[in-house]
Amino acid sequence: MLQRNLLQTDSPGVPLCGAPESDQKNGGIDDIVNFALAFLKRQYLVIIVTVTLAMAACVVYLRITPPTYTARVQILLAPTAQFVQQQSLLSEPSFDFAQIETQLEIIKSRGIAATVINQLGLENDPDFSGSRPSLFSLWYRIRAKFLPPPEDLPSAAPGQPSNDAITAFLNRLSAGRIGTSHIIEVSYNSSSAKRAAEIANAIANDYIADQLNAKVEANRSATSWLQERLHDVGEQALAADRAVNGYKSQNNIVSSGGKSIDEQQVTDLNSRLVAARAQTSDTLAKLNRYEAVLRTSSENSASIGTLGAGGTDALTSPIINNLRQQYLELARRESEYSARFGHNHLSVINLRTQMQDLRTSIIEEVKRVAESSRSEYEVAKQRQQEIEKQLAEAVSQSRSTSSAELTIRELESRAKELHSLYETFLQRYMGSLQQESFPNSEARVIYPAVPPPSKSKPKTILSLALGLLGGVGLGIGLGLLREVMDRVFRTTAQIEDLLAMPCLSLVPLLRVPNLPEPASSHQADDDLRQRIVSNVSATHQAVVSMPLSRFAEAIRSIKLAVDLNASKSADQVIGVTSALPNEGKTTIAASLAQLIAHSGKKVVIVDCDLRNPSLSACLAPNAATGVVEVTSGKQSLEEAVWRDPKTNLVFLPAFRRDPLYHTSEILSAESMRGLFDRLRATYDYVVVDLPPLTPLVDVRVTSPFIDCFVLVVEWGRSKTDVVQHALRTAPNIYECMIGAVLNKTDIKAMCRYDVYKSDYYSENNYAHYGLSDSS
């Protein structure tokens, strides 16, 4: 119990106290390595057989598969250098991703395949006709035999290859883009290296020829359409010109330099009116200046007034300027004489008189010039009015023809558009003629296909390597599947992990010899009268007859675990049970009792398997009374027990005269507890052979009078889920259980499951410790 509790508290995720972390890591790696080694020991035959079959399949595949050679040709998709400047109606290809994918589909089209097949005469090629064995030909034969041809598949036209030949050809053809470049690599598979290169080059050449023919045909169609369109546009432009001229003649519209006569007349009159208005404005300004001078200059004034100001210099009359100069000279002299001779001197007075005469002459001259300016103003004003009248008449006439001019402009615009369209079509038509006379292709072969020096498939080394790896992987997978499906107990670690209890011992599988001859009737009658256990089987006597065997040592481990169990003060009553019948619990119970009795201890073994008392049938087949009669009071204990004279073993059998239906009631009765109290007081050890846990409930009622239980698990036969379910349904038994015994263990096979104890299980190690293998 203490050991099981310790196992339960040691979580795998929590390192043990005092254990370095590096040791924990190394332990995990060692566990993985040990598990792998143990797995290989267990499943090496499966892996070897699987690898052998896989390698054999690869060899058969390499023998029956014909060699395949792959030839490759590279095609560049790019515009070629042009020696003649060409203008084509068709746009140049840009060769983006979609364009390249389109070219790849064209290369892999049925049209290219049919052309190459007809060109090289591949209809009767062995690769297509099926005379050479291959996977493709085998598939075609199977499909033709079992699968009807699709109804929507068109039949081959006369002179064209069959659909099967085209399909076989396309299955051997592949095309792909090299990286992100504009280079396409076309590859073809064939059974002949020379034929593969020939077909690959033919595919490339036919593709380039197809592209060139398609472009020439497109240019020819475009040229024909363009010629017809050019003729139509020319006729339409000529008709538009005729419509413009006819409309002008109909509406008496005359134009010069692209403009009508009325429009030119209005423009000229407008220019003349602007000039006339400027001249009228100038003459009026000049007249106004003269009149302003006359208004500010009085005839009786002693001075010339504004006639001597700077602003009158604009009066450019030479007469006025001359008189003005004379007046200024006389004014200067008058000022000097007045200062010298006095203001009333005769010379001063004469000068003043002359100055007055000059001033009068200047005013008269200004009046004459003003009258002349007035006459010029009247003439300019009259001319302006005449021009305005003519302009009004021209504008009125121009308005009457405005609607006709709009129609003419519309007709002229249409005629201009048609002429421009005609020029455009003419340029394109000339470029298309040049393109048709000098065609070029955007695709060219940059590296032709050559016969490959070696086959591309099947690759011998690769096939064998894949077969080896596949066989190893499949073998490991099958081995792991067997491991997963093998849900039985085979190691002590499984007992400890799945059942949370220690494994007390590994009991080896006994090879039972031939049973001795049954005793005579006289001897049987003596044994019956003396109740002596004499007909003990070799299995139950193994622990005594072979004390140095593995079996005896395993039974000693069970006794030691019972003696060292610290859960109770005294473990005198030991119950031996199992999850299912036929797991060897009876043999373990009898052997444990024989071992304890052989060591000199007082021990009694009680057969409490009331439904199937197999131990009683073996040790006391002639018993007439047993534990049931003792508990019911029909027989005393001393009269019901049997004894083994060799080991002093005491045996209380279970006699079954009639079928017992309520065995659990018998085992749970107070009289049964009283019986075991008497046995506990009389003997050092009481070994109880109990029924199995799963089919019966009898074991669950024995916990009050049994100190500890030992669970017997058959190696390689007991299902893990069955044992776990049996323990879950009997929690009171589970709490009193000191451990489990792995019975009927195949020691040689055990080395393949538990690498930790492989040395311990070896024959040399057993011989080293003086243990025989007589079992």
Structure description:
The structure is a single chain. The radius of gyration is 67 Å and the shape is elongated. With 775 residues, the chain is an alpha/beta fold. It folds into three domains: 68-116 and 160-253 and 406-457, Bacterial polysaccharide co-polymerase-like; 261-400; 492-514 and 568-768, P-loop containing nucleotide triphosphate hydrolases (Rossmann fold), CATH 3.40.50.300. The protein has 28 helices and 14 strands. Helices cover 58% and strands 10% of the residues. Residues 1-22, 81-90, 308-314 and 517-524 have low confidence and may be disordered. It has an eight-stranded mixed β-sheet, with helices on both faces. Strands 2-3-1-6 form a four-stranded antiparallel β-sheet. It has a two-stranded antiparallel sheet with strand order 4-5.
What's the β-strand tally?
A: 14
User: Radius of gyration over alpha carbons?
Assistant: 67 Å
Computed structural class? alpha/beta
Task: Give the biggest sheet.
Answer: 8 strands, mixed
The name CATH uses for the topology of the largest domain is Rossmann fold
Q: Can you tell me the overall shape?
A: elongated
Strand content is: 5-15%
CATH superfamily membership of the largest domain: P-loop containing nucleotide triphosphate hydrolases
Q: Give the strand line-up of the largest sheet.
A: 7-14-13-8-12-9-11-10
C-alpha end-to-end distance: 31 Å
What's the CATH architecture of the largest domain? 3-Layer(aba) Sandwich
Task: Provide the number of structural domains.
Answer: 3
State mean pLDDT (0 to 100 scale): 77
Low-confidence stretches: 1-22, 81-90, 308-314, 517-524
